[in-house]
Amino acid sequence: MQVVPVPVHEVTRLLEPFTLYADGYLLLEQYDVAPAMVHTWPAAVFLGILSICLAFYTAAISTMRQVPYFAGISLLMLFLASFNIDLLQVFGAEQSQAMLLVAIVLLAGLSYGFQAFWKHIAFGWRVLAMLVTIIVLGVATFTEAEFAPDLTALHLVNYSSLATLIATLLFIIWISYENVNALLWINTQGKTPERRYSLWQFVLIAGLYLTNLLLLYLRHMGYLQTDLIYVNGYLILLLSVVAGFWGMQQREAFYGKYFPFRPTGAVLYLVFTTIAFLSIGYAYANANDPLTTLFHTFIIYTHLVYGSVFFLYLMINFGKLIKERKAVHKVVYEPRMFTLFSFFLMSTVILAILVIRTQYSTYFQAKAGYYNYLGDLYTASQNPALAKRFYEESDVYDINNVKANYSLASMYRAESQRNNEILHLKGALGKRPNPKLYVRMANLYDEKQYFFEKLYVLHEGINRFPESSEIYNNMALLYMQTSVTDSVEYYFNLAEKYSSNKEVIQSNRLAFYTRQAMLEPARALLNEVKGADYKSLRSNMAALRQLLGVNDRPDEAFAPDSLEQVEDFTLFYNQTISRLNNGDTSQLKAIDRYLKMPGNQLFQEDLLYSKGLVHHYNGRPKEARSIVENLALAASERSGYYYNALGIWMLEEGNYLAAAHYFKQAKDLGYTQAFLSHGYALAMAHKPADAVNALQEVGYTGLESATEVAGQLQQVLQQSVQQTIASGSDADKVKYLQTYLPQLTIEQVDALVKSVKEKELHRVALLSQIDYLMHQQKWRLANKAIKMASPQLQPEGELRSKLNLQQLKLWHYTKNYDALLDRMDNVYLTRLDKRYKLYFKASIAAAKGRNREAAEKYSQAVKILLFDEEVVKAAAAFYKQYAPDEMTAYEILLDGITYNPFSVELHKAYALESLDKGLTSYAEEALTTLQSLLSASEYTTFNKQFESHHQAAAKKADDWQL
């Protein structure tokens, strides 16, 4: 999250723009990889399906003859023993084999009963009985075990993984030659010889299949580096499974004396198929790369070896018959020379040679995968010491395997052992590199001093994985720390090209353009991503729109239930800033809700400030000033900024002494932007001498542009009227006119205005002349000046709105209420100037005796126009007559002097009202304040009025007591 100053509002005074900036937030998103996590839901799914398989298995073996039945029941017992149920402490704290014995007795006993005594029971009922038994055992285990249900499931699955692994490998061997057998059936299944294929066609199709397996083997061994199109190993396995089911039925002649194909053989085949795919899927679900590598390798080895030897078996035994286009598939298991036993023995020996040639890598991978599962179990059990030990054992059996090393790296990450994390990540990258490892490895070098280390890791990742959008994105962000913008653009282009989530890249690119002030590309991208839903992108779009002065569309308002993520806050905050001038206060409820939430302390200052901004620009100046003043007092590092913001608000409202006061406070706190503003505020407050002194201090800031502007205004303020008219530029004349306005004569004002020739500046001068005449209560001259200025201010804008407001005020002062009512809603006014309509309506209602309506309108007007001393005085005067016994008038004046402590007129009215309400001490405090605001003669005059009023109030109180 990076800060970018965005303009909130601009006010022009003495022809100089003063802009209030707020912190906008840009989001840059770098890909990272989360620590290794152990999910228990795959184990629950695995265990549920495995339980069903066990029910079918025990039911299926109960239909066998005695000898194969006892072999099947022995395998069941061994499999149940692999669960290590004793560690679950089902029957108390001590480890006991009781639960295992109960499971064996129930399942084996029930199965034996079906096999020996209840042979007439249908197969479906046997399966149901076994399912009920397994459910009872499961309920007992899960309810009585010392561990949570999810950990119990993980324990049972991960400890039994070695047994399911063996079953899977045996099953793969079982079906490894079935694809060749299926190809034989395709070639020889025609009803007539003419519809069957020849020997060479069979050799060709089988040769292509075996060649693909050979290429996969050579690529796996590293002998072949070319990128060819291979048939995926798991697709080969799936085809073998389908072909094997047909082959299982075909071989019934061999095993039929022990058990039938239906249902026993078919069920057993489907059970082992399910277990095999469960075991493979579970390995992938847990990213157990030793096992995933083992499964793929074993599929290639077995299918290549057994398939090739079976092809040899077919050629030796049935080559001549295939050549003669006989239906060989019917007699494929009736060899005359090369027996099936020889085929299996020869294939197994060759497979053993391949395993030995790789230094028993498949065995070690199986052990490593098993230990990874145990490491996962103890990680989920919050036993990091034991988990670390099992992961280390896994790393011994399959050196640098990713699962163990990344799990260990994650543990070291939690312990803040950065070097150990790097060590294990390097090991994993050396064994089985993938883009995620490069991303995580590079992110460990995020500090500036490791720039080149991170660059090296990302470059290596790009060389290995040239289509990794994540690495390209992170590389672009790394180059953003430099001045090489071409590289940033280059890598962003590559990232977007290969990304499946282009909005992430577009969001980062938009933030880059915004930071670099690349406006044309930024505008083009802004138009391209219009209507995007991605929150980070929308957040950056809101910040850019505010910089460009483009309003957000109303339908894009975002106010989530909570600020759980950073992008929730930045999108809400940026949008709030961009909607300040739309009259939209809907965000206030959301801000108040967020401020009450305990998790949002990090954003509290920004939320409070945004609340103050919404209040200020939407008609609640009192609340806004209170919030920002409190922030200025509390936020020591940013106090200068907040005082400067208050100063700009006072400039907007025309309270120039208050503005100067806040700018002075910001200056004292070292806020450099306030130095020039302070001088201008004093000039607008018609204190040229003080302004000159303040402008001289601008040079201390070291800001050349500000110093130059200050020097120019200082020179203007030190001239006489005649010098300004004679030699000053049009801009200088306007500045002089506005600064010295109350001190000039009508003739001087008229001369200055007429001497301004530049069209736009002449318009500004005309408005200043009207202000002067209205302040002097020269109503007729003011009306004439308005009529003369009107043709020159035809285009609607701020100047036209100000002229229209002057006209409305003139009708109000001269009590021309009919014209005021008739034209009020028809003249052009800016959104801020429209607020004065409430004041005019209140005044008209009071003049016509509609006191209730006037009270309501004045109450509303004071809230939104509290900064205007005229409105505050008028409202207080009305309530003094309307409700003389209440404190409403006093409270209005108190709010007025609190908001604008430099208003002489409000302090006078407050002092007198305090006397009327018997609050003498408050009245005297106000009198003391007036002494610092008025000249000696003005203070003496008011002091006499004050004493007279004091005596009258005291006499009234005495009369009341009598």
> Which runs of at least 5 residues are low in confidence (pLDDT < 50)?
none
How many beta-strand segments?
2
Helical residue percent band: over 70%
Q: Numbering strands along the chain, what is their spatial order in the largest sheet? A: 1-2
Distance between the termini: 72 Å
Strand content: under 5%
Q: Please tell me what the overall shape is.
A: elongated
Give a quick account of the main beta sheet: strands, pairing sense, barrel closure: 2 strands, antiparallel
Q: What's the rounded overall pLDDT mean?
A: 89
Please state the CA-atom Rg, rounded to the nearest Å: 44 Å
Output the structural class.
Answer: mainly alpha
Number of helices: 47
Characterize the structure shown.
The chain is an all-alpha fold. Helices cover 71% and strands 2% of the residues. A two-stranded antiparallel ribbon has the order 1-2. β1 and β2 (16-26) form a beta hairpin. α1 (41-61) packs antiparallel against α11 (261-285), α22 (502-515) packs antiparallel against α23 (519-528) and α22 (502-515) packs parallel to α24 (535-548). The chain is elongated, with a radius of gyration of 44 Å. The model has no long low-confidence stretch (mean pLDDT 89).
